[in-house]
Recover the amino acids of this structure.
């Protein structure tokens, strides 16, 4: 038996092979080293790419011509607060500005004369304003079109029969409709106010074509509308001094109303919802505490059954 065991040991069948273990450890450490190197390489590439992108963005922003454009400043309008309503006296003066200045080029085709009732005019005053306009109607019994005095149901007439005529009268520029202008422009009434009061001489290097004017609040700076508001260009019926800023402020208040005539009604409903919601929440809290206080204050104890002998 001893001789047999000796032969097996001499043959090497029970000998360990330590050469495989260092090989595996060496391979693993090499792979781990390559992984760390790749991570460092990718991190370096990411930092370089990010820095290059930031540099290119900064250079692009620094050479844009849009730096000549200005963002309209925020103005403290009387209707901006959660519980504030329109200044109806200012809206009435704004209607006068639109009628005597803006209506020569800009339409208000989504507003009817009946909409003025209760907002800027009484019913009799709105009827008188409508009757000043001659509205094309028809055909009559003979098939011909005719003109008649306006009615409360009529909408504000356009100063031009079509877009082509409007462009021909304004050197190719099309005067937009003002019904929703404060809702259609970024900045709302702040943008319109800044535009009306922001005309100035173009800076050095800016060349304007014939029939264009410079306004830094207009995209591109070159605008086809000439400055329309000046001091004392009209006379208010209520005696308010008609300065340029006052004219712009009043017409912006009026155009804000044309874009959102439901503004005051919406805020009234908002106040009603707040009052009703607060009342219901208070009643619910009281009812919950009244009904559930006895259940929440109970103590439930589980007693183990007595052991039977």
């Amino acid at each position: 038996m001893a001789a047999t065991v000796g032969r097996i040991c001499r043959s090497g069948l029970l000998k360990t092979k330590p050469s495989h273990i260092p090989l595996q450890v060496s391979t693993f450490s090499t792979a781990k080293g390559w992984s760390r190197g790749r991570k460092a390489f990718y991190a370096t590439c990411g930092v370089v790419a990010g820095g290059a992108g930031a540099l290119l963005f900064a250079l692009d922003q620094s050479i844009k011509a849009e730096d000549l454009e200005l963002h309209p400043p925020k103005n403290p309008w009387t209707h901006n607060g959660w519980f504030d309503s329109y200044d109806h006296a200012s809206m009435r003066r704004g209607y006068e500005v639109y009628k005597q200045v803006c209506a020569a080029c800009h339409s208000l085709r989504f507003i009817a004369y009946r909409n003025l009732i209760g907002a800027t005019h009484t019913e009799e005053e709105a009827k008188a304003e409508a009757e000043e306009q001659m509205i094309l109607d028809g055909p009559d019994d003979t098939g011909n079109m005719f003109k008649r005095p306006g009615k409360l149901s009529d909408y504000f007439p356009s100063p031009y029969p079509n877009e082509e005529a409007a462009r021909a009268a304004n050197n190719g520029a099309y005067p937009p409709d003002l019904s929703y202008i404060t809702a259609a422009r970024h900045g709302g009434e702040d943008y319109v106010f800044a535009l009306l009061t922001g005309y100035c001489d173009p800076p050095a290097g800016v060349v304007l074509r014939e029939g264009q004017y410079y306004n830094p609040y207009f995209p591109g700076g070159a605008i086809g509308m000439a400055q329309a508001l000046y001091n004392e260009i009209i006379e208010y019926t209520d005696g308010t001094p008609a300065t340029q800023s006052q004219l712009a402020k009043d017409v912006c208040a009026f155009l804000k109303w044309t874009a959102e005539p439901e503004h005051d009604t919406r805020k009234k409903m908002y106040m009603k919802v707040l009052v009703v919601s607060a009342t219901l929440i208070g009643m619910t809290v009281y009812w919950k505490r009244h009904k559930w206080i006895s259940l929440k204050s109970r103590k439930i104890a589980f007693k183990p059954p007595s052991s039977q002998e």
